Amino acid sequence: MADLTTTFLGITSPNPFWLASAPPTDKEYNVRRAFEAGWGGVVWKTLGMEGQPVVNVNGPRYGAIFGADRRLLGLNNIELITDRDLHRNLEEITRVKKDYPDRALIVSIMVPCEEEAWKAILPLVEATGADGIELNFGCPHGMAERGMGSAVGQVPEYITMVTEWCKMYYSKPVIVKLTPNITDIRQPARAAFKGNADAVSLINTINSITSVNLDAMSPEPMIDGKGTHGGYCGPAVKPIAMNMCAEIARDPETNGKPISAIGGITTWRDAAEFMALGAGNVQVCTAAMTYGFKVVQEMISGLSQWMDEKGYEKTSDFVGMAVPNVTDWQYLNLNYVTKARIDQDACISCGRCYAACEDTSHQAIDMSIDRVFTVKDDECVACNLCVNVCPVEGCIEMVELEMGALDERTGEIVKPYANWTSHPNNPGAIKAAE
Amino acid sequence: MSNTTMTPGIQPGRLPGENLDVNFQDLHPPLTPHEAHVAADRCYFCHDAPCMTACPTSIDIPLFIRQIMTGTPEAAARTILEQNILGGMCARVCPTETLCEEVCVRETAEGQPVEIGRLQRYATDTLMARNSHPFARAAETGKRVAVVGAGPAGLACAHRLAMKGHDVVMYDARAKAGGLNEFGIAAYKSTEDFAAREVAWLLGIGGITVETGRSLGAGLSLEQLKQDHDAVFLGIGLAGVNALSVAGAEKDGVVDAVSFIAELRQAEDLATLPVGRRVVVIGGGMTAIDAAVQSRLLGAESVTVAYRRGADRMGASQFEQDLAASKGVRIMTNVMPVAVHGNGAASEVELEYTQDVDGRLTGTGETVRLVADQVFKAIGQTLQGAPEGLEITRGKIVVTGGGRTSVKGVWAGGDCALGGEDLTVTAVAEGRDAAEDIHKALMG
Ligand SMILES: Cc1cc2nc3c(=O)[nH]c(=O)nc-3n(C[C@H](O)[C@H](O)[C@H](O)COP(=O)(O)OP(=O)(O)OC[C@H]3O[C@@H](n4cnc5c(N)ncnc54)[C@H](O)[C@@H]3O)c2cc1C
Ligand SMILES: Cc1cc2nc3c(=O)[nH]c(=O)nc-3n(C[C@H](O)[C@H](O)[C@H](O)COP(=O)(O)O)c2cc1C
Ligand code: SF4
Ligand code: SF4
Ligand code: SF4
């Protein structure tokens, strides 16, 4: 069986699955049980400054988006960093690390953007024996109003500055956790590495309002008739997180730098996808909050089965393998032609593909009187919409036309690779050719 | 073809072969990948899941269903087989309606449980189709264990022992291993020779020798087995049957249901198997239902199950009773047999109505006669061939803890041992647990 042991920044854990800094990692009681359940590591719930801890609301702090059958797809929260005493947390971290030397234990920190504050807390964290720290520059609510969290993560100069302080006052690996509430994720990532961060982790939660109570006319979660934007996470944010991960992985300035991926990871496959996009390991929050710590067992068995099937012996064998295939639109092969094909044995004749294609795409599906659905090759632009709306997995396939075959829609023969940069319709290309 | 459902007497070939093929198809056909996906999606991944508690082998049901959901049915199969090496058979034969599926929270929510049994089959079938054995043996311990009886209890015990590195010799009185999986389970639950294929696959672990035609009490003695092995496990099931003590019970056409089923299971060609035109089955358990349903499927014109108590006391579950009804079997309750009439061969069964008087079953005096050219006795199996010296209570070998009998070095499990329901899955659990206990005892 494949060996899931993963070394990230020199920190070895029995598998690449860490719990992200959040309620699951808020206390010793949880973290011990998480380790017993099989988690490879944890990032402890973000610690704040010495003194009076922050307080949380005492009403609902979560809102949610559901899929069919009330499956939780997106979670939003207005929780702050740990509301427990700093020293109590540090004592617990010390004890847990001592008892679980083989698991990764990272301490997440968020203190004000002042050197003194970081200088004060870092030695205390160092003394716990934890394996590294993660700088929470991501929390988008509450803490941001106080100049911390995403308020720092949105200003690259601050990121570099604080990271430098941390590298100065702390000896072990420093991970910078990025906020997705920004237009170009490469900027904060570059800033982190400029400050000598050992890695970046992403994403933290996304600013969001999940629902509005139409009786009270207030966003949910509603606290005494009012609501505020909260941080969105869970399966719904995975595509956003994956793109950000890939952007950093393929940015020439940060290519190959360690990434710990976070955002909607729920199954082994989600983890494998992020890792293929360059993440050395992954962190999970919502999946554990939805299904409990035990959910890691499926991630472990699934990843090792997949690795066995693919012949990967260790996780580093496939990390980053998809990165070279993430490219810009302009380099996509415009001579790659596919057509939708409906498997008539699998088709249940629901007509969803027809409605989608007829009403909103290219009128390329034919419906017979007895409800047989077939693709018209001379109309199909291969948009993939029918594949995505069909309720039967694998029922509609995109079939590639061989080189030299006739594309009935354009009346042209399939030619070798050519992209937009040399396309006759591209003004730039014409100019270049002249 | 000369015989039909109407041909009098006990006759083979009442239905054309193609009808028989259809009739004896899978009761619970395998799920297609799409069906499995939809079925798996319904599971809530419950905490401390009630389904798991209800499974006698404690299979981690939420985990294996999640593994199916995420496209790794092979990993799901491993999760199942770690707890229950006969997970493939159990997926086919477990009365899930009274076990895991009965307590599924979606049964509570919508009256429609997650299809745990069929999902289990989907996973185990996928793995077994790869024809690989998922477990490896531990280093050999040099210990030898005798397992008597190659039914589910014996097989589960032998597999777990082999996995722990012990050498196992299985002895079975029959010519084939498998126990009731091979000889008892209804044909439409174990199709395409699944029982034999599963045994062959299970033996793939290595370290297990099977000696068939070796009977404890006839050639094999417990003393000898104890001398030659480090431990002995008895999984001999219930090889005897209760006698029907009514006038005429010896007449031709009156047979044990289990023998009829065993013959059916071993028949090369179901068209050669004789069955009565009018069949009466005495009893109310799984065996009675199976004999009745299979008689109908073979082409008997009318089949009646006659049970002496009320429907609520029947051993067969509601699902089994409904299945019988759907196949055209008539279930009569509160009737007990008083005589079999006929000149040499049975032609009628006389039943007396019963009632419950202060908890005692009492005849009302009113009787009824049913025309019957074949009468199946399905009134319970009994322990037979248990060696001298073992403590026996209520017709079963007394065991404590992990299947320890009153004799040192001898363990027992499955139908022959006291405790638990007489089910395949219970036998597997007991065999497995005894193996763990034997391992502990042998390794100190
Ligand atoms: C007709 C019928 C239908 C059933 N249907 C179902 C069902 O649908 N679902 C379900 O869960 N359960 C069902 N059961 C019950 C289930 O089959 C048993 O509970 C289960 O097989 C018990 O397993 P076991 O290993 O204890 O015994 P068995 O399966 O009976 O195996 C015992 C083995 O020991 C051998 N043996 C016996 N005596 C000796 C001896 N003296 N020396 C050597 N070997 C010996 C036998 O040949 C046999 O191979 C059914 C039972 C019957 C009779
Ligand atoms: C209730 C809640 C509290 C969180 N608190 C923190 C925190 O204190 N520090 C932090 O870095 N991230 C925090 N997060 C963000 C998560 O660590 C994670 O980045 C985010 O939820 C995305 O991952 P997911 O989709 O697996 O949940 C929190 C998330 C949730 C849901
Ligand atoms: S999850 Fe627990 S703490 Fe939260 S509202 Fe429900 S009962 Fe209260
Ligand atoms: S959406 Fe899929 S199942 Fe429905 S008609 Fe189209 S091809 Fe068939
Ligand atoms: S009880 Fe039902 S829904 Fe819950 S884990 Fe078991 S099968 Fe899934």
From TrEMBL, chain A:
Keywords: Iron, Iron-sulfur, Metal-binding, Oxidoreductase
The enzyme's E.C. designation: 1.3.1.1
Xref: InterPro entries: 4Fe4S_Fe-S-bd (IPR017896), 4Fe4S_Fe_S_CS (IPR017900), Aldolase_TIM (IPR013785), Dihydroorotate_DH_cat (IPR005720)
Annotated Pfam families: DHO_dh, Fer4_21
Reaction(s) this enzyme catalyzes, per UniProt: 5,6-dihydrouracil + NAD(+) = uracil + NADH + H(+); 5,6-dihydrothymine + NAD(+) = thymine + NADH + H(+)
Any single Gene Ontology cellular-component annotation: cytoplasm
Gene3D superfamilies: 3.30.70.20, Aldolase class I
Ranges where the 4Fe-4S ferredoxin-type domain occurs: 338-370, 371-401
Keyword presence, Metal-binding: yes
The keyword Secreted appears for this protein: no
Domain of life: Bacteria
Entry GO MF terms: dihydropyrimidine dehydrogenase (NAD+) activity; iron-sulfur cluster binding; metal ion binding
Family indicated by similarity: Belongs to the dihydropyrimidine dehydrogenase family.
Quaternary assembly: Heterotetramer of 2 PreA and 2 PreT subunits.
Described purpose of this protein according to its UniProt entry: Involved in pyrimidine base degradation. Catalyzes physiologically the reduction of uracil to 5,6-dihydrouracil (DHU) by using NADH as a specific cosubstrate. It also catalyzes the reverse reaction and the reduction of thymine to 5,6-dihydrothymine (DHT).
NCBIfam families: PRK08318.1
Name of this protein: dihydrouracil dehydrogenase (NAD(+))
Gene encoding the protein: preA
From TrEMBL, chain B:
Stretches that traverse the bilayer: none
Domain of life the protein comes from: Bacteria
Position of the signal peptide: none
GO function terms (MF aspect): iron-sulfur cluster binding; oxidoreductase activity
Positions of the FAD/NAD(P)-binding domain: 144-431
Domain Dihydroprymidine dehydrogenase stretches: 23-130
A Pfam entry, by short name: Fer4_20
UniProt name for this protein: NAD(P)-dependent oxidoreductase
Organism: Pseudooceanicola sediminis
